Amino acid sequence: MDTIILISFIAAAVIAAVIINIISNQNKIKRFAARLRKNFGTFERKEPDLEKKSSYRGYFRKHSEDEGFFIDDITWNDAEGETLYNSMNKCYSSCGEEYLYFRLRHPDLKTSKEEIEKYVSQTDELINDENLRVELQLKFATLGKTGKHSVYDYISLLSNVKRLPLVLFYAVWAVYFLVIASYFINVTLGVCVTIAWLIICIIFYLYNKRNIENYLTSFEYIVRTLITSEKIADMKVPFYEEESKRLRELRKEIKGIKTAYLSFIKQSNRSGMADMMSGMASVMNSFFLIDLFFFHKMLKYIIDKEDAYDEIFAILGNMESQICVANMKKAFDSVCVPEFVEENMISGKDMFHPLVKDCVENSFEAKRGMLITGSNASGKSTFLRSVLVNAILSQTVYVAFAKEFKLKHFELFSSMSLKDSLGAGESYYMAEINSIKRILNAKESGEEILCFLDEVLRGTNTVERVAAASEILKYLSSENVIPFAATHDIELTYLLENDYDNYFFREEILKEDDKEDIYFSYKINKGRSDTRNALLLLKIMGYPKEIFENAEALSKNFLNTGKWKYDEG
Protein backbone atom coordinates (compact mmCIF):
# COMPACT_ATOMS: atom_id res chain seq x y z
CA MET A 1 0.00 0.00 0.00
CA ASP A 2 2.81 2.38 0.93
CA THR A 3 4.52 1.58 -2.35
CA ILE A 4 1.36 2.44 -4.29
CA ILE A 5 1.04 5.74 -2.41
CA LEU A 6 4.69 6.60 -3.09
CA ILE A 7 4.37 5.77 -6.77
CA SER A 8 1.14 7.80 -6.99
CA PHE A 9 2.82 10.74 -5.27
CA ILE A 10 5.79 10.63 -7.68
CA ALA A 11 3.45 10.33 -10.69
CA ALA A 12 1.37 13.26 -9.45
CA ALA A 13 4.50 15.35 -8.91
CA VAL A 14 5.73 14.58 -12.44
CA ILE A 15 2.33 15.44 -13.95
CA ALA A 16 2.17 18.65 -11.92
CA ALA A 17 5.68 19.62 -13.06
CA VAL A 18 4.73 18.99 -16.69
CA ILE A 19 1.53 21.05 -16.34
CA ILE A 20 3.38 23.90 -14.61
CA ASN A 21 6.03 23.86 -17.34
CA ILE A 22 3.37 23.96 -20.07
CA ILE A 23 1.54 26.86 -18.39
CA SER A 24 4.83 28.71 -17.84
CA ASN A 25 5.78 28.34 -21.52
CA GLN A 26 2.34 29.49 -22.62
CA ASN A 27 2.59 32.57 -20.39
CA LYS A 28 6.03 33.34 -21.84
CA ILE A 29 4.62 33.12 -25.35
CA LYS A 30 1.71 35.39 -24.40
CA ARG A 31 4.04 37.98 -22.90
CA PHE A 32 6.30 37.81 -25.95
CA ALA A 33 3.31 38.21 -28.30
CA ALA A 34 2.10 41.21 -26.28
CA ARG A 35 5.58 42.75 -26.61
CA LEU A 36 5.54 42.17 -30.36
CA ARG A 37 2.23 43.99 -30.65
CA LYS A 38 3.39 46.86 -28.47
CA ASN A 39 6.71 47.40 -30.23
CA PHE A 40 5.42 47.20 -33.79
CA GLY A 41 5.74 50.53 -35.54
CA THR A 42 8.75 51.74 -33.52
CA PHE A 43 11.92 52.82 -35.31
CA GLU A 44 15.08 54.29 -33.85
CA ARG A 45 18.64 54.76 -34.93
CA LYS A 46 20.79 51.85 -33.74
CA GLU A 47 24.52 51.79 -34.25
CA PRO A 48 25.90 48.47 -35.52
CA ASP A 49 27.63 45.91 -33.35
CA LEU A 50 30.77 45.15 -35.36
CA GLU A 51 31.24 41.79 -33.62
CA LYS A 52 27.94 40.53 -35.07
CA LYS A 53 28.70 41.33 -38.71
CA SER A 54 29.74 37.79 -39.58
CA SER A 55 26.43 36.42 -38.28
CA TYR A 56 24.28 38.08 -40.94
CA ARG A 57 26.53 38.44 -44.01
CA GLY A 58 26.75 34.80 -45.11
CA TYR A 59 23.80 34.78 -47.51
CA PHE A 60 25.01 38.05 -49.05
CA ARG A 61 28.55 36.73 -49.53
CA LYS A 62 27.23 33.60 -51.19
CA HIS A 63 25.01 35.47 -53.65
CA SER A 64 26.75 38.82 -54.18
CA GLU A 65 28.63 37.69 -57.28
CA ASP A 66 25.89 35.74 -59.06
CA GLU A 67 22.86 37.98 -58.56
CA GLY A 68 23.76 41.00 -60.71
CA PHE A 69 24.50 44.48 -59.35
CA PHE A 70 25.06 44.97 -55.63
CA ILE A 71 26.00 48.01 -53.57
CA ASP A 72 29.74 47.99 -52.96
CA ASP A 73 31.40 48.58 -49.60
CA ILE A 74 32.31 52.23 -50.23
CA THR A 75 28.76 53.23 -51.19
CA TRP A 76 27.32 51.09 -48.38
CA ASN A 77 29.55 52.83 -45.83
CA ASP A 78 28.73 56.28 -47.23
CA ALA A 79 25.04 55.50 -46.80
CA GLU A 80 25.66 54.33 -43.21
CA GLY A 81 24.35 51.01 -44.43
CA GLU A 82 25.20 49.04 -41.29
CA THR A 83 23.33 51.55 -39.15
CA LEU A 84 20.39 51.53 -41.55
CA TYR A 85 20.28 47.74 -41.49
CA ASN A 86 20.63 47.56 -37.72
CA SER A 87 17.85 50.13 -37.24
CA MET A 88 15.51 48.21 -39.55
CA ASN A 89 16.33 44.76 -38.24
CA LYS A 90 13.49 43.33 -36.14
CA CYS A 91 14.17 39.72 -37.11
CA TYR A 92 14.16 36.81 -34.69
CA SER A 93 15.68 34.26 -37.06
CA SER A 94 18.92 34.02 -38.99
CA CYS A 95 16.89 33.56 -42.19
CA GLY A 96 15.31 36.98 -41.74
CA GLU A 97 18.48 38.76 -40.64
CA GLU A 98 20.63 37.42 -43.44
CA TYR A 99 18.05 37.95 -46.17
CA LEU A 100 17.28 41.53 -45.04
CA TYR A 101 20.97 42.42 -45.26
CA PHE A 102 21.23 40.81 -48.69
CA ARG A 103 18.15 42.63 -49.98
CA LEU A 104 19.33 46.06 -48.83
CA ARG A 105 22.58 45.59 -50.73
CA HIS A 106 21.03 44.11 -53.85
CA PRO A 107 18.84 46.56 -55.80
CA ASP A 108 16.99 44.50 -58.39
CA LEU A 109 17.24 46.71 -61.47
CA LYS A 110 14.95 44.50 -63.57
CA THR A 111 12.00 44.08 -61.20
CA SER A 112 8.65 44.20 -62.96
CA LYS A 113 5.81 46.47 -61.94
CA GLU A 114 3.80 43.41 -60.90
CA GLU A 115 6.55 42.16 -58.58
CA ILE A 116 6.84 45.58 -56.95
CA GLU A 117 3.08 45.79 -56.43
CA LYS A 118 3.06 42.30 -54.92
CA TYR A 119 5.86 43.16 -52.48
CA VAL A 120 4.19 46.43 -51.44
CA SER A 121 0.85 44.67 -51.01
CA GLN A 122 2.41 41.99 -48.78
CA THR A 123 4.05 44.55 -46.48
CA ASP A 124 0.77 46.46 -46.27
CA GLU A 125 -1.09 43.27 -45.33
CA LEU A 126 1.45 42.63 -42.56
CA ILE A 127 0.69 46.09 -41.18
CA ASN A 128 -3.06 45.55 -41.27
CA ASP A 129 -3.31 41.95 -40.02
CA GLU A 130 -1.80 42.08 -36.54
CA ASN A 131 -2.75 38.56 -35.45
CA LEU A 132 -1.29 36.91 -38.53
CA ARG A 133 1.89 39.02 -38.31
CA VAL A 134 2.43 38.06 -34.66
CA GLU A 135 1.79 34.39 -35.45
CA LEU A 136 4.48 34.52 -38.13
CA GLN A 137 6.91 36.27 -35.78
CA LEU A 138 6.37 33.58 -33.12
CA LYS A 139 7.29 30.90 -35.62
CA PHE A 140 10.41 32.78 -36.71
CA ALA A 141 11.36 33.26 -33.06
CA THR A 142 11.07 29.49 -32.57
CA LEU A 143 13.39 29.00 -35.53
CA GLY A 144 15.87 31.37 -33.87
CA LYS A 145 19.45 32.25 -34.78
CA THR A 146 22.73 30.42 -35.12
CA GLY A 147 24.80 32.74 -32.92
CA LYS A 148 28.06 34.42 -33.90
CA HIS A 149 28.34 32.80 -37.31
CA SER A 150 26.15 32.77 -40.39
CA VAL A 151 24.08 29.75 -41.36
CA TYR A 152 26.10 29.69 -44.57
CA ASP A 153 29.38 29.61 -42.67
CA TYR A 154 28.18 26.40 -41.04
CA ILE A 155 26.87 24.97 -44.31
CA SER A 156 30.17 25.72 -46.06
CA LEU A 157 31.92 23.60 -43.43
CA LEU A 158 29.84 20.60 -44.48
CA SER A 159 31.61 20.55 -47.83
CA ASN A 160 34.82 19.75 -45.92
CA VAL A 161 33.37 16.57 -44.45
CA LYS A 162 34.78 13.38 -45.88
CA ARG A 163 31.62 11.74 -47.19
CA LEU A 164 31.12 8.04 -46.66
CA PRO A 165 29.13 6.31 -49.41
CA LEU A 166 25.86 4.87 -48.11
CA VAL A 167 26.65 1.57 -49.80
CA LEU A 168 29.44 1.18 -47.22
CA PHE A 169 26.85 0.93 -44.44
CA TYR A 170 24.80 -1.57 -46.41
CA ALA A 171 28.00 -3.62 -46.80
CA VAL A 172 28.63 -3.47 -43.02
CA TRP A 173 25.15 -4.77 -42.32
CA ALA A 174 25.54 -7.46 -44.98
CA VAL A 175 28.69 -8.70 -43.25
CA TYR A 176 26.61 -9.50 -40.16
CA PHE A 177 24.76 -12.12 -42.21
CA LEU A 178 28.14 -13.67 -43.04
CA VAL A 179 29.05 -13.55 -39.35
CA ILE A 180 25.87 -15.41 -38.50
CA ALA A 181 26.56 -17.90 -41.29
CA SER A 182 30.00 -18.61 -39.79
CA TYR A 183 28.32 -20.16 -36.73
CA PHE A 184 26.82 -22.84 -38.95
CA ILE A 185 30.31 -23.76 -40.12
CA ASN A 186 32.00 -23.72 -36.71
CA VAL A 187 30.87 -22.11 -33.43
CA THR A 188 34.42 -21.21 -32.42
CA LEU A 189 34.97 -19.65 -35.82
CA GLY A 190 31.71 -17.76 -35.43
CA VAL A 191 32.73 -16.35 -32.04
CA CYS A 192 36.13 -15.27 -33.34
CA VAL A 193 34.67 -13.67 -36.46
CA THR A 194 32.01 -11.88 -34.36
CA ILE A 195 34.56 -10.45 -31.91
CA ALA A 196 36.89 -9.38 -34.70
CA TRP A 197 34.10 -7.72 -36.68
CA LEU A 198 32.68 -5.91 -33.63
CA ILE A 199 36.14 -4.52 -32.82
CA ILE A 200 36.50 -3.28 -36.42
CA CYS A 201 33.06 -1.63 -36.25
CA ILE A 202 33.79 0.07 -32.91
CA ILE A 203 37.13 1.44 -34.11
CA PHE A 204 35.54 2.66 -37.34
CA TYR A 205 32.66 4.20 -35.37
CA LEU A 206 34.85 6.05 -32.87
CA TYR A 207 37.09 7.38 -35.64
CA ASN A 208 34.16 8.82 -37.61
CA LYS A 209 32.10 9.90 -34.60
CA ARG A 210 33.94 13.22 -34.48
CA ASN A 211 32.26 14.31 -37.73
CA ILE A 212 28.87 14.17 -36.05
CA GLU A 213 30.00 16.23 -33.09
CA ASN A 214 31.52 19.01 -35.21
CA TYR A 215 28.55 19.59 -37.51
CA LEU A 216 25.51 19.23 -35.28
CA THR A 217 24.83 22.99 -35.31
CA SER A 218 24.55 22.95 -39.10
CA PHE A 219 22.14 20.03 -39.12
CA GLU A 220 20.08 21.35 -36.26
CA TYR A 221 19.42 24.73 -37.88
CA ILE A 222 18.72 23.18 -41.26
CA VAL A 223 16.14 20.85 -39.71
CA ARG A 224 14.56 23.71 -37.73
CA THR A 225 14.33 25.70 -40.97
CA LEU A 226 12.49 22.84 -42.67
CA ILE A 227 10.12 22.42 -39.73
CA THR A 228 9.37 26.16 -39.76
CA SER A 229 8.78 26.09 -43.53
CA GLU A 230 6.20 23.31 -43.04
CA LYS A 231 4.41 25.22 -40.26
CA ILE A 232 4.28 28.47 -42.23
CA ALA A 233 3.11 26.68 -45.38
CA ASP A 234 0.33 25.07 -43.31
CA MET A 235 -0.84 28.53 -42.13
CA LYS A 236 -2.17 29.11 -45.66
CA VAL A 237 -1.60 32.87 -45.54
CA PRO A 238 -3.64 34.33 -48.45
CA PHE A 239 -0.97 36.82 -49.59
CA TYR A 240 1.77 34.17 -49.31
CA GLU A 241 -0.08 31.57 -51.35
CA GLU A 242 2.64 31.25 -54.02
CA GLU A 243 5.40 31.12 -51.41
CA SER A 244 3.58 28.45 -49.37
CA LYS A 245 3.07 26.30 -52.45
CA ARG A 246 6.73 26.58 -53.33
CA LEU A 247 7.79 25.73 -49.77
CA ARG A 248 5.78 22.49 -49.94
CA GLU A 249 7.36 21.59 -53.29
CA LEU A 250 10.87 22.23 -52.03
CA ARG A 251 10.29 20.27 -48.84
CA LYS A 252 9.41 17.24 -50.95
CA GLU A 253 12.68 17.65 -52.83
CA ILE A 254 14.67 17.23 -49.62
CA LYS A 255 12.44 14.72 -47.88
CA GLY A 256 15.55 12.73 -46.93
CA ILE A 257 16.32 15.27 -44.20
CA LYS A 258 14.17 14.05 -41.33
CA THR A 259 13.67 15.31 -37.80
CA ALA A 260 13.85 11.77 -36.46
CA TYR A 261 17.32 11.34 -37.93
CA LEU A 262 18.60 14.46 -36.17
CA SER A 263 16.99 13.47 -32.86
CA PHE A 264 18.70 10.09 -33.00
CA ILE A 265 22.07 11.68 -33.83
CA LYS A 266 21.76 14.30 -31.08
CA GLN A 267 20.82 11.71 -28.48
CA SER A 268 23.82 9.63 -29.43
CA ASN A 269 26.06 12.68 -29.25
CA ARG A 270 24.88 13.56 -25.73
CA SER A 271 25.82 10.14 -24.37
CA GLY A 272 29.05 9.77 -22.48
CA MET A 273 31.44 6.90 -23.15
CA ALA A 274 30.13 4.79 -20.27
CA ASP A 275 26.53 5.32 -21.33
CA MET A 276 27.41 4.46 -24.91
CA MET A 277 28.81 1.07 -23.91
CA SER A 278 25.98 0.25 -21.52
CA GLY A 279 22.92 1.77 -23.24
CA MET A 280 21.21 -0.35 -25.86
CA ALA A 281 20.89 2.48 -28.38
CA SER A 282 24.55 3.40 -28.07
CA VAL A 283 25.59 -0.22 -28.40
CA MET A 284 23.60 -0.45 -31.62
CA ASN A 285 25.31 2.68 -32.90
CA SER A 286 28.73 1.26 -32.11
CA PHE A 287 28.04 -2.08 -33.76
CA PHE A 288 25.68 -1.10 -36.58
CA LEU A 289 26.75 2.55 -37.21
CA ILE A 290 23.13 3.74 -37.28
CA ASP A 291 23.74 7.39 -36.31
CA LEU A 292 26.66 7.57 -38.75
CA PHE A 293 24.34 6.25 -41.45
CA PHE A 294 21.70 8.89 -40.63
CA PHE A 295 24.36 11.59 -40.57
CA HIS A 296 25.73 10.74 -44.02
CA LYS A 297 22.26 10.19 -45.43
CA MET A 298 21.30 13.72 -44.36
CA LEU A 299 24.66 15.09 -45.49
CA LYS A 300 24.08 13.66 -48.97
CA TYR A 301 20.70 15.38 -49.20
CA ILE A 302 22.01 18.69 -47.88
CA ILE A 303 24.93 18.83 -50.32
CA ASP A 304 23.02 17.43 -53.29
CA LYS A 305 19.96 19.59 -52.58
CA GLU A 306 21.71 22.73 -51.38
CA ASP A 307 19.90 24.86 -53.94
CA ALA A 308 16.52 23.68 -52.63
CA TYR A 309 17.47 24.55 -49.05
CA ASP A 310 18.87 27.89 -50.25
CA GLU A 311 15.51 28.74 -51.82
CA ILE A 312 13.61 27.74 -48.69
CA PHE A 313 15.96 29.96 -46.67
CA ALA A 314 15.34 32.87 -49.07
CA ILE A 315 11.54 32.48 -49.01
CA LEU A 316 11.43 32.43 -45.21
CA GLY A 317 13.98 35.25 -45.04
CA ASN A 318 11.94 37.37 -47.42
CA MET A 319 8.81 36.87 -45.32
CA GLU A 320 10.44 37.92 -42.07
CA SER A 321 12.36 40.79 -43.64
CA GLN A 322 9.04 42.11 -44.96
CA ILE A 323 7.87 42.38 -41.35
CA CYS A 324 10.85 44.70 -40.78
CA VAL A 325 9.82 46.78 -43.78
CA ALA A 326 6.22 46.87 -42.57
CA ASN A 327 7.43 48.02 -39.14
CA MET A 328 9.45 50.84 -40.73
CA LYS A 329 6.51 51.96 -42.88
CA LYS A 330 4.26 51.98 -39.83
CA ALA A 331 6.76 54.06 -37.82
CA PHE A 332 6.66 57.10 -40.13
CA ASP A 333 3.74 59.23 -41.23
CA SER A 334 5.36 60.40 -44.45
CA VAL A 335 6.38 57.40 -46.54
CA CYS A 336 5.49 56.54 -50.11
CA VAL A 337 5.88 53.87 -52.74
CA PRO A 338 8.45 55.17 -55.24
CA GLU A 339 7.44 55.58 -58.86
CA PHE A 340 9.84 54.10 -61.39
CA VAL A 341 10.05 55.95 -64.70
CA GLU A 342 11.70 55.41 -68.06
CA GLU A 343 13.21 58.90 -68.20
CA ASN A 344 16.72 59.35 -66.82
CA MET A 345 15.81 61.40 -63.73
CA ILE A 346 15.22 61.41 -59.98
CA SER A 347 13.00 63.67 -57.90
CA GLY A 348 11.63 63.90 -54.39
CA LYS A 349 8.90 65.94 -52.76
CA ASP A 350 9.44 66.71 -49.06
CA MET A 351 12.13 64.03 -48.83
CA PHE A 352 13.92 63.34 -45.54
CA HIS A 353 16.47 60.96 -44.02
CA PRO A 354 14.97 58.29 -41.70
CA LEU A 355 18.11 58.08 -39.53
CA VAL A 356 18.41 61.84 -38.90
CA LYS A 357 16.31 63.03 -35.98
CA ASP A 358 13.93 65.86 -36.90
CA CYS A 359 15.36 65.89 -40.41
CA VAL A 360 14.34 68.93 -42.48
CA GLU A 361 12.39 67.96 -45.59
CA ASN A 362 13.64 69.00 -49.02
CA SER A 363 12.23 68.83 -52.52
CA PHE A 364 14.32 68.49 -55.66
CA GLU A 365 14.36 67.26 -59.24
CA ALA A 366 17.43 66.24 -61.21
CA LYS A 367 17.56 65.32 -64.89
CA ARG A 368 21.26 66.06 -65.13
CA GLY A 369 24.14 66.78 -62.75
CA MET A 370 23.41 68.65 -59.51
CA LEU A 371 26.23 70.78 -58.02
CA ILE A 372 25.64 71.83 -54.42
CA THR A 373 27.53 74.58 -52.61
CA GLY A 374 27.15 76.01 -49.15
CA SER A 375 28.92 76.79 -45.93
CA ASN A 376 30.26 74.27 -43.46
CA ALA A 377 27.57 72.30 -41.58
CA SER A 378 24.84 73.80 -43.77
CA GLY A 379 23.39 70.44 -44.85
CA LYS A 380 25.14 69.49 -48.09
CA SER A 381 26.37 66.06 -47.00
CA THR A 382 23.12 65.21 -45.21
CA PHE A 383 21.21 66.02 -48.37
CA LEU A 384 23.45 63.77 -50.47
CA ARG A 385 23.01 60.92 -48.00
CA SER A 386 19.25 61.48 -47.88
CA VAL A 387 18.97 61.05 -51.64
CA LEU A 388 21.32 58.03 -51.56
CA VAL A 389 19.46 56.25 -48.73
CA ASN A 390 16.09 56.87 -50.34
CA ALA A 391 17.41 55.59 -53.68
CA ILE A 392 18.64 52.41 -51.93
CA LEU A 393 15.36 51.81 -50.09
CA SER A 394 13.32 52.64 -53.19
CA GLN A 395 15.11 50.02 -55.28
CA THR A 396 15.29 47.30 -52.62
CA VAL A 397 12.18 47.40 -50.39
CA TYR A 398 10.13 49.93 -52.41
CA VAL A 399 9.86 52.52 -49.65
CA ALA A 400 10.81 56.21 -49.89
CA PHE A 401 10.72 58.77 -47.10
CA ALA A 402 8.94 61.51 -49.00
CA LYS A 403 5.47 62.48 -50.12
CA GLU A 404 6.52 61.58 -53.68
CA PHE A 405 9.67 59.96 -55.02
CA LYS A 406 10.40 59.22 -58.67
CA LEU A 407 13.44 57.66 -60.25
CA LYS A 408 14.73 55.39 -62.94
CA HIS A 409 16.35 52.11 -61.93
CA PHE A 410 19.95 53.14 -61.25
CA GLU A 411 23.18 51.49 -60.26
CA LEU A 412 24.31 53.43 -57.19
CA PHE A 413 27.84 54.65 -56.43
CA SER A 414 29.33 57.21 -54.07
CA SER A 415 32.63 58.66 -52.88
CA MET A 416 31.97 60.64 -49.73
CA SER A 417 33.42 59.42 -46.42
CA LEU A 418 36.85 58.07 -47.25
CA LYS A 419 39.67 57.56 -44.78
CA ASP A 420 43.43 57.16 -45.03
CA SER A 421 44.39 53.51 -45.35
CA LEU A 422 47.72 53.58 -43.53
CA GLY A 423 47.82 49.80 -43.22
CA ALA A 424 47.68 49.53 -47.00
CA GLY A 425 50.14 52.40 -47.44
CA GLU A 426 47.44 54.51 -49.10
CA SER A 427 47.07 58.27 -48.55
CA TYR A 428 43.74 60.06 -48.48
CA TYR A 429 44.31 61.38 -51.99
CA MET A 430 45.10 57.90 -53.33
CA ALA A 431 41.99 56.53 -51.62
CA GLU A 432 39.98 59.31 -53.31
CA ILE A 433 41.23 58.74 -56.83
CA ASN A 434 40.78 54.98 -56.52
CA SER A 435 37.25 55.49 -55.23
CA ILE A 436 36.31 57.88 -58.03
CA LYS A 437 37.95 55.66 -60.66
CA ARG A 438 35.45 52.87 -59.96
CA ILE A 439 32.62 55.34 -60.72
CA LEU A 440 34.29 56.30 -64.00
CA ASN A 441 34.58 52.60 -64.85
CA ALA A 442 30.89 52.09 -64.11
CA LYS A 443 30.01 55.06 -66.32
CA GLU A 444 31.94 53.52 -69.19
CA SER A 445 29.89 50.31 -68.89
CA GLY A 446 26.91 52.16 -70.32
CA GLU A 447 24.56 51.34 -67.42
CA GLU A 448 22.37 54.06 -65.88
CA ILE A 449 24.33 55.45 -62.93
CA LEU A 450 23.31 57.62 -59.97
CA CYS A 451 26.42 58.77 -58.12
CA PHE A 452 27.27 60.99 -55.16
CA LEU A 453 30.54 62.86 -54.57
CA ASP A 454 31.35 65.03 -51.57
CA GLU A 455 34.25 67.48 -51.95
CA VAL A 456 35.95 65.91 -54.94
CA LEU A 457 39.71 65.53 -54.42
CA ARG A 458 39.77 67.35 -51.10
CA GLY A 459 43.06 65.58 -50.40
CA THR A 460 45.14 67.83 -52.67
CA ASN A 461 45.94 71.54 -53.24
CA THR A 462 43.34 74.09 -54.34
CA VAL A 463 44.54 74.78 -57.90
CA GLU A 464 44.91 71.15 -58.94
CA ARG A 465 41.76 70.19 -57.06
CA VAL A 466 39.58 72.66 -58.94
CA ALA A 467 41.18 71.79 -62.29
CA ALA A 468 40.87 68.03 -61.85
CA ALA A 469 37.48 68.11 -60.14
CA SER A 470 35.96 70.19 -62.94
CA GLU A 471 37.11 67.72 -65.57
CA ILE A 472 36.01 64.66 -63.55
CA LEU A 473 32.56 66.10 -62.92
CA LYS A 474 32.24 67.20 -66.55
CA TYR A 475 33.18 63.69 -67.69
CA LEU A 476 30.51 62.21 -65.41
CA SER A 477 27.85 64.52 -66.76
CA SER A 478 26.58 62.30 -69.57
CA GLU A 479 23.37 60.72 -70.81
CA ASN A 480 23.62 57.64 -68.61
CA VAL A 481 24.84 59.31 -65.39
CA ILE A 482 23.21 61.69 -62.92
CA PRO A 483 25.91 62.95 -60.53
CA PHE A 484 25.20 64.74 -57.25
CA ALA A 485 28.27 66.66 -56.08
CA ALA A 486 28.85 68.88 -53.06
CA THR A 487 31.74 71.34 -52.97
CA HIS A 488 33.17 74.41 -51.24
CA ASP A 489 34.85 75.49 -54.46
CA ILE A 490 32.62 78.22 -55.88
CA GLU A 491 34.82 78.23 -58.99
CA LEU A 492 33.26 74.92 -60.02
CA THR A 493 29.79 76.47 -60.23
CA TYR A 494 31.07 78.70 -63.04
CA LEU A 495 33.24 76.14 -64.78
CA LEU A 496 30.39 73.59 -64.86
CA GLU A 497 27.33 75.80 -65.27
CA ASN A 498 26.64 74.35 -68.74
CA ASP A 499 26.67 70.80 -67.43
CA TYR A 500 25.24 71.03 -63.89
CA ASP A 501 22.34 72.73 -62.17
CA ASN A 502 23.53 74.85 -59.25
CA TYR A 503 21.96 74.52 -55.81
CA PHE A 504 23.09 75.76 -52.42
CA PHE A 505 22.41 75.73 -48.69
CA ARG A 506 22.54 79.01 -46.78
CA GLU A 507 22.89 80.18 -43.20
CA GLU A 508 21.92 83.30 -41.28
CA ILE A 509 24.08 85.23 -38.83
CA LEU A 510 22.12 86.06 -35.68
CA LYS A 511 23.24 88.63 -33.09
CA GLU A 512 22.04 88.69 -29.54
CA ASP A 513 23.67 90.64 -26.67
CA ASP A 514 26.67 91.45 -28.92
CA LYS A 515 27.20 87.75 -29.55
CA GLU A 516 27.07 86.24 -33.01
CA ASP A 517 25.62 82.84 -33.81
CA ILE A 518 24.79 80.93 -36.97
CA TYR A 519 21.36 79.56 -37.84
CA PHE A 520 20.99 76.91 -40.56
CA SER A 521 17.68 76.32 -42.30
CA TYR A 522 18.93 73.11 -44.00
CA LYS A 523 16.72 74.01 -46.98
CA ILE A 524 18.09 73.61 -50.49
CA ASN A 525 17.90 76.60 -52.85
CA LYS A 526 18.54 77.11 -56.54
CA GLY A 527 21.69 78.98 -57.48
CA ARG A 528 25.23 79.20 -56.09
CA SER A 529 26.31 80.02 -52.56
CA ASP A 530 27.79 83.47 -51.99
CA THR A 531 28.78 83.07 -48.34
CA ARG A 532 31.57 81.43 -46.36
CA ASN A 533 31.49 80.68 -42.65
CA ALA A 534 34.66 78.75 -41.81
CA LEU A 535 36.40 81.74 -40.18
CA LEU A 536 33.24 82.92 -38.43
CA LEU A 537 32.85 79.48 -36.88
CA LEU A 538 36.34 79.84 -35.40
CA LYS A 539 35.25 83.11 -33.80
CA ILE A 540 31.97 81.71 -32.48
CA MET A 541 33.74 78.66 -31.05
CA GLY A 542 36.01 80.94 -28.99
CA TYR A 543 39.30 80.73 -30.89
CA PRO A 544 41.82 83.47 -29.97
CA LYS A 545 40.89 86.81 -31.52
CA GLU A 546 44.30 87.11 -33.15
CA ILE A 547 43.80 83.91 -35.17
CA PHE A 548 40.39 84.96 -36.48
CA GLU A 549 41.33 88.55 -37.39
CA ASN A 550 44.61 87.67 -39.10
CA ALA A 551 42.99 84.84 -41.04
CA GLU A 552 40.16 87.14 -42.12
CA ALA A 553 42.65 89.73 -43.35
CA LEU A 554 44.61 87.12 -45.31
CA SER A 555 41.39 85.83 -46.86
CA LYS A 556 40.14 89.27 -47.93
CA ASN A 557 43.51 90.17 -49.43
CA PHE A 558 43.58 86.97 -51.47
CA LEU A 559 40.04 87.52 -52.77
CA ASN A 560 40.95 91.07 -53.82
CA THR A 561 44.39 90.42 -55.35
CA GLY A 562 44.51 86.71 -56.11
CA LYS A 563 47.74 86.45 -54.12
CA TRP A 564 48.58 85.36 -50.60
CA LYS A 565 50.34 88.03 -48.56
CA TYR A 566 51.34 87.70 -44.93
CA ASP A 567 52.19 90.93 -43.07
CA GLU A 568 54.72 89.99 -40.42
CA GLY A 569 54.74 93.50 -39.05
Topology:
Elements lengths: L1 H38 L13 H4 L1 H6 L9 H6 L2 H8 L5 H11 L8 H16 L1 H14 L7 H8 L7 H20 L1 H28 L1 H20 L5 H13 L5 H12 L2 H6 L1 H9 L1 H15 L1 H26 L7 E2 L5 E6 L10 E5 L2 E6 L5 H17 L7 E4 L3 E5 L12 H17 L4 E6 L7 H15 L4 E6 L4 H5 L4 E13 L2 E12 L7 H7 L4 H17 L8
Parallel strand pairs: 1-5, 4-8, 4-9, 6-7, 7-8
Antiparallel strand pairs: 2-3, 2-5, 9-10
Short descriptors:
six-stranded mixed sheet, Rossmann fold, 569 residues, four-stranded mixed sheet, 11% strand, single chain
Structure description:
By secondary structure, the chain is of the alpha/beta class. Helices cover 59% and strands 11% of the residues. The protein has 24 helices and ten strands. Helix 12 crosses helix 18. It is elongated. The termini are far apart.
Number of strands: 10
Q: What is the CATH C level class of the domain at 339-532, in words?
A: Alpha Beta
CATH homologous superfamily assignment of the domain at 339-532: P-loop containing nucleotide triphosphate hydrolases
- The mean pLDDT is 85
Give the end-to-end Cα distance, rounded to a whole number of Å: 115 Å
**Could you name the CATH topology of the domain at 339-532?**
Rossmann fold
Low-pLDDT ranges: 270-278
Q: Order of strands in the sheet with the most strands?
A: 6-7-8-4-9-10
Q: Which range does the strand content fall in?
A: 5-15%
The largest sheet is: 6 strands, mixed
**Could you say which overall geometry the principal axes of the C-alpha atoms support?**
elongated
What is the helix fraction of residues, given as a range?
Answer: 55-70%
Structural class: alpha/beta
Helix run count:
24
Oligomeric form of this entry? single chain
Just name the CATH architecture of the domain at 339-532: 3-Layer(aba) Sandwich
